Amino acid sequence: MSVFFKIGLPWAISLGVVFYIGLELGSKIQNEKHSPDSSVLNRKFSQAYSKKQILKMDSSIQINSEKSSLNDDFRELNPVYSPPLPPNLIKIMEEGDMVERMGAYMDALRRMDESSLLEVVEAFESLPKGYGRHLEMKLLMRSWANIDPFSALNYAENSLDEKSEQRFAMTEVLAGWAKRDPNSAIAWVKDRQVENPDSKKNDNLLVGVVKGLAENDLKTADEFFRTLPQGNAKWQASTFLAQEYAKKGTTEAIRWAEQFPKEDQRMRSMILGQMGSKLAQSDLKGTANWVESMPIDKASEQVMSNLLSRWASQAPQEAAIWSSQLPDSAKRIQAMKLLTTKWSLRDPVATAGWLNTFPPSAELDPVVGEFVNRISSRDPEGAVGWATSIIDQDQRNRAVDQALRAWNRRNPKEANAWKIENGYDSNKGVDR
């Protein structure tokens, strides 16, 4: 008992006092209203970057602290221990090979806090500007958003190249922020839209919010996505939603995609097309079954196109069997045309071999016409031969004319010799 009063009791009292002070300090900070200019972190970063002026706050990225759950000042007063950064980080970024550079950089990002931010940014800036540092930039912005999204946004807007980096950087900052604190990120973006309704940068911010939400809360992401106006932001954001829903499996992904109304064909085509592209990466047969069940419209054509793009690169013979055996004739010709387009770019000889397994027919004419269109520039003589096999006279003449024009550009003497030999008249075409 005496030991407790000598050691335990004073320790318990001290712990209680510290806990009480912590509660009071936290409460004070939560209730304090301040602008970004008065933030402890922003003052420190502004001083550190004063020469480059990359963290000077402006009205475009201001937010009332009451709308944010980020306790920047509390973090400043209660820093979390972070191990030292890799030695010679900047030198490694400048001179190291790709593996060494990325390894050191990833270590630095994992350990990055307020005290080491400047060093990490300087290491990033040691890389040559341009798309060659795209990944490093995105990783930096995502990590920086967890520390202070305001200064990260300011850096993106004022220090990164507008054409090659800025858009992606702003998207990553908002993605990191929305994933960590969705309510604050959404509130800030809405405020920004009101203050700067015509800013083209708003699209980057909206896309970032959807991306971050989709990584953590698909339902909220979907709800926010549906509020976006038609345009580039909605198109880009749909990619991230489709990506995350695709991870849930083919059945659930399709169920979500098909919720979009048929009345809005453009939106429906965009969403279903994005989903088709994502599902085809992991489930070709499941995506093919989905296409078979869909009515023929712009949306189904987009899904089919994305499916066959993937299928033609992985297993073109399987795609060929599936396309040519579809029971619906209109869908079968559509699929065969799309496959011809994509397969002939990769392997025109194999595509020709496949088409040769079918006898000439009026039904096959559009498919052969598509093949002629794709090979004319590379093999105009062969294209002419295929064109003459088309049954329908109007389609045949158009295909022959196209192939001959390509042939004439490459070898006018040979093209002219063929015309004479076959009695070709550009006004009358070719009789079979």
3D architecture notes:
There is one protein chain. The longest helix has 30 residues, at 2-31. This protein is elongated. It has helices at 2-31, 40-48, 72-77, 89-95, 98-111, 117-125, 134-147, 149-159, 162-180, 182-195, 202-216, 218-225, 232-246, 250-257, 265-280, 284-293, 298-314, 316-324, 329-346, 348-355, 365-375, 380-387, 393-410, 412-421. Helices cover 70% and strands 0% of the residues. Mean pLDDT is 82; it is low at 1-81. It starts with a helix and ends in an 11-residue tail after the last helix. Among the domains are: 36-174, no CATH class; 359-432, no CATH class. It is mostly helical. The chain contains 24 helices and no strands.
Secondary structure elements and pairings:
Layout: H1 2-31, H2 40-48, H3 72-77, H4 89-95, H5 98-111, H6 117-125, H7 134-147, H8 149-159, H9 162-180, H10 182-195, H11 202-216, H12 218-225, H13 232-246, H14 250-257, H15 265-280, H16 284-293, H17 298-314, H18 316-324, H19 329-346, H20 348-355, H21 365-375, H22 380-387, H23 393-410, H24 412-421
Helix pairs in contact: 4-5, 4-6, 5-7, 6-7, 7-8, 7-9, 8-9, 9-10, 9-11, 10-11, 11-12, 11-13, 12-13, 13-15, 14-15, 15-17, 16-17, 17-18, 17-19, 18-19, 19-20, 19-21, 21-22, 21-23, 22-23, 23-24
